[in-house]
């Protein structure tokens, strides 16, 4: 069954809006993006031909501050995926209580098949087309799936060239030394583990005795796995996409994966070198085998709609916690099954909010033209993530509701409150 992420995002919102008896006007406003921009980017390729890329920038809601959200590069990107991600960004920023709204961007492309020159021309073309839609006080992009700090630097440079000035706060996720923040690279993965650690402590579970299986090995999964294992947890399996075979594999080592060993044999897009992994003693399993591992914790850190009623049938009865590092990895019709089994759900827009929180810190530093140490950034990040977790966890206990619903209640009430105070409804 194919799932539409935008319909999933709306279904999650509608469920909680009904529960909290949200005003009909606020409900109508918040279930739809406020602004959409669809455009094309013509790019001269290295062989002299021209290719036209479809692109998007969507602003869901900016009642609490400028829209914020990454730009995804993906060959199967759709407008509905970007709409969903923009909506989730609104709740994410509200959940961790930072003064930003929800936005998202995307380009239908596969950077893995493009030269650096072609990627640069595409990035600069995106900014030329979207120049009037973005800005430090309007909508602030960042890296996302298959985009990186070099892409962001090209985009910032193009924006400043057009604007005729220095605007380092227009884009976040830039390289350190060019307006980027220390700690930004690891922020999303570390944020996941900050929240997971708090949950384990609240439930009186020793992290040193836990095991995990992870989907994805990009930036989020990489740093989450590093910190989780540093704290004493054991990663049994990692599933990721293999560029050469155009398929996904699960790499398993029952004694525990050596994360830094795997980092040393992966590429910039999070693909592990299959031959080298086999030589190091890893088992090679199908891509979806990560779900069936006999572990305590599942960390879906790849793409949306991975946990469905069909795939959930393969999840081990041993699993006690799901920590959603990806955006929308669980479909709404799978949530009741997870709840019924008593699995503790750490929802995406709480768990992976470390990235946008650190992006907010980057904006603040750019505006001050004064940059913090890595220790200061990560200390502030941990404080924000822990505070947000306890607000969600305590509300879930108090109301006896699913943690995803508790996170939505907090976020929706904060955003709807801002909308009402502005007089929009």
Structure description:
The protein has 425 residues and is an alpha/beta fold. The chain is built from 15 helices and 12 strands. The chain is globular, with a radius of gyration of 21 Å. The mean pLDDT is 95.
Gist of the model:
The chain is α/β, with parallel strands linked by helices and about 425 residues long. It is built from 15 helices and twelve strands. Helix 3 packs across helix 15.
Number of helices: 15
**Principal-axes shape call:** globular
Radius of gyration: 21 Å
Mean pLDDT comes to 95
Strand order of the largest sheet: 9-8-7-6-10-11-12
**SS elements, strand count:** 12
Structural class: alpha/beta
**Low-pLDDT residue intervals, each spanning 5 or more residues:** none
Strand content bin: 15-25%
Gap between N and C termini: 37 Å
Name the helix and strand elements from N-terminus to C-terminus, one letter apiece: HHEEEHEHEHHEHEEHHEEHEHEHHHH
* Main sheet characteristics: 7 strands, mixed
Residues in helix, %: 40-55%
Describe the secondary-structure layout.
Elements: H1 5-19, H2 24-30, E1 35-44, E2 50-61, E3 67-74, H3 79-95, E4 101-108, H4 116-130, E5 139-143, H5 149-163, H6 184-202, E6 211-215, H7 219-230, E7 234-242, E8 247-252, H8 259-263, H9 274-279, E9 283-286, E10 297-300, H10 309-312, E11 321-323, H11 335-340, E12 344-346, H12 348-351, H13 354-368, H14 374-399, H15 403-422
Parallel strand pairs: 3-4, 3-5, 6-7, 6-10, 10-11, 11-12
Antiparallel strand pairs: 1-2, 2-4, 7-8, 8-9
Helix pairs in contact: 1-3, 1-15, 3-15, 4-5, 6-7, 6-13, 6-14, 13-14, 14-15
